Each structure stands twice: as C-alpha cells, then as structure tokens.
Amino acid sequence: MTDQQPETSPVATWRAPGRVNLIGEHTDYNDGFTLPFAIAASCTATVRPGGDGLRAGSAQVDGEVAIPLTGLAEAPAVPDWARYVLGAAWLLRDRGVDVPPLEVTVDSDVPSGAGLSSSAAVVCSVVTALDDALGLGLAPDELLALSRAVENDVVGAPTGGMDQLASLRSREGHVLFCDMRDLAAEPVPFDLGGAGLALLVVDSRAPHAHADGEYAARRRGCEAAAAALGVPALRDVVIDDLDAALARLDGVGAEEQRRYTRHIVTEDARVLQTVELLRAGRVREIGPLLTQSHVSMRDDFRITVPEVDTAVEVLLAGGALGARMTGGGFGGCVIGLLEAEAVESAAAQVEEAFAEAGFTPPVAFTVTPGPGAHRVDG
Ligand code: GAF
C-alpha cells in the first residue's frame, strides 16, 4: 500500500462492532484458533478531509487533539485515545500514502475495559472510514494488517489480532472461526434463538489491575514455552502430544510454562470441538466446553479474578449450560449459555451474589451475533 494517490471524497462514516469471544482465549498470539462474534455495541467513525493537520475528536472524551500533518516519529505526545483514532492516518503517511489534512471523530457505546474490544471497534471503524474517504481500495487483509498495526505499533499493545479480525469480518447470525496462523475466518452458524437459548453477558466491572503487564507476561511465557519445545508456536503442539510436551518442559521451563502450554493446547482443541458441534447444529452441547475453558483460564493460565469466578459459579449453579470469562482477562465480562427463559433470574442471582460479596454491582445484557464493520449512509 505504498505510493498510492488517494482520491479524496467528502465524508465517510463507518460503524465497527465490539465482540464477544465464544471460546479460544489467548490462543490468537499462539497462531491458534478463536471463535468470536460481533455484538451490537459498536463505534462509529467519521472522516472529514479538510482543515490543516490531523484532528481527532471523541464523543466520550472532552477536547480535541490536533497535530501537524507529520509522520509518527515527529508526532508530539498524544493520549492513547487519540493514538487509536489517528494511528491509521499516521501509518498510511509513513507508508507513502498522500493523506490530506483531515478530521476523524468517533462515538462508541462499547464499554471500555470490559473485555469487549472497545479499542478494536474504534480502530476498525476509523480504518474502514479512512479507506472509503480517501478512496484507497485496501484489500481485506490490508484493512486487517493496518488495524492491527495501530494497536501493536502505534499504541504499543502486544495483542494478537483476533479482535480486529472479528470487528472487520463478523457476519450476522454467525460466529467467526478464525485460524490466526493464516488469518482465515470462516463464518459458522450460531442460532441461539432456534435452540431456545440465550447468551447472557455479565460485565463484572472489576478493576483491570495490571492487565497490560500480565497480558504481555502471558505472551512472553507462551513464546518461551514454544521456544523450549522447538516449535514456531504453541499451536504446533497437538492435543495428542500434550503429555509428551509437558514432560519435555519438566525441569526445563518454569512451572508456569507448563501451565500456559496446557491452557493453549487444550483451548485450541476446545475451539475445534465447539466448531464441530455448531456445524452439526448441536448448540446445546457446547456448554461443557465453555466451562472447561473457564477452569483452564482460572487454574492454568491464571487470568481470572474473584468477580468473574463468582459470576461463572453463580450462573452454573443456577442451571447455565456453560459459562466462562470472555476476553483478555483480569476483570471484564463473563458469558453464560442459558435457557432463554432463565435469563432474568440468572442476572438477578449474579447481582445478589455480587452484593453479598461486596463487589461493584455488575451489568448484565444478552447478545446475538451481529455484522462486522459496515458503511453508515446519510
Ligand atoms: C485481548 C487481545 F486484544 C486479543 O488479541 C486476545 O489475545 C484476547 O485478549 C484474549 O483471547 O482481547
């Protein structure tokens, strides 16, 4: 995408969603499998060429950020929210695209810090709106690469790419079966209503203490385990070889490398099993896999906190078919697969348990799979 001369069109507005990950956590940066879907909560970005320099505005933040029309290296210190909003324009300029002066404004209702990909919603709405407004005609893999680069290179968060893939490519009524090695994304039907089921999201509202550092530490630990095993990534350890791999790490890797390996290898296998069940229309049977995923995140990967463990326990005790934390962890949201008619009582039970434990009151809502990024007309 170098040396392109964009044709400037007046204004473009695009909407990109947040996501729930049904299963497959922290597998993305291990070249593994994930199964996210877009939710209704989303970010709308409007790109207006004109003015001088690059300007960012957000309906959720007071004040505008304005910087000269320069590359990343010359950019003055700007807050993270504006890096998410202006990062794609910076990167395009760095790559030789003649980005004109422009203003980008965003408005999002994806709760931030809840593990629902609020940042990917911002970035993907901006990238698709920029592509449209500047007439760049970027291919799907270029849109994805640019969105990932904003988070990894401009903001500096070492995330694995699932969130941007989900936000760009999700399809209504489907989960997105993502192979994060070759970035293939296949929509798989996910008909909750047809099965008489609902997916309840409980936002634990637990403070995200040390989430960034812990996330990066998990990534480093997984990469160290793969190196110790002599494979490119933990995805290359198949489930039938797990015991042998753990034995090889015994006495070599730190104890945590064995736990991380067990989580990633079993989680990849659970994603594949979940996909098989969904392809066969056996939605009700995925519950135990969701719960096993939670146990693995709690005991092996150790990324849960008391609030999310409590929500999972209460949902399961109340009859949920399965429940797990979703997203990067250290707080955030839990999902519960429930009989449709059990949603209200389940939410009330979690609220009661949180009050008894002295936790911040949770926020509960149901979700269904929505569309990925799309243009907003008018
Ligand atoms: C966060 C990251 F951004 C994703 O890349 C992924 O690793 C996820 O945590 C955990 O599955 O959302």
Write the layout of secondary structure elements.
Layout: E1 12-21, E2 33-34, E3 36-49, E4 54-58, E5 61-67, H1 80-94, E6 102-108, H2 118-133, H3 140-155, H4 162-169, E7 174-179, E8 184-189, E9 197-203, H5 211-229, H6 242-249, H7 255-279, H8 287-301, H9 306-317, E10 322-326, E11 333-339, H10 343-357, E12 363-367, E13 374-375
Parallel strand pairs: 4-6
Antiparallel strand pairs: 1-3, 1-13, 2-7, 3-6, 4-5, 7-8, 9-11, 9-12, 10-11
Helix pairs in contact: 1-2, 1-3, 2-3, 2-4, 5-7, 6-7, 7-8, 9-10
The structure holds 2-deoxy-2-fluoro-alpha-D-galactopyranose.
GO molecular function: ATP binding; galactokinase activity; metal ion binding
Pfam family, one: GHMP_kinases_C
EC number: 2.7.1.6
Strand order of the largest sheet: 5-4-6-3-1-13
CATH architecture of the largest domain: 2-Layer Sandwich
Which structural class do you get from the secondary structure elements?
A: alpha+beta
DSSP E strands, number: 13
- Specify the number of helices: 10
Shape: globular
Rg, please? 21 Å
Give me the strand/helix succession.
Answer: EEEEEHEHHHEEEHHHHHEEHEE
Ions, cofactors and other bound molecules: 2-deoxy-2-fluoro-alpha-D-galactopyranose
- Estimate the strand proportion: 15-25%
Task: Please give the domain count.
Answer: 2
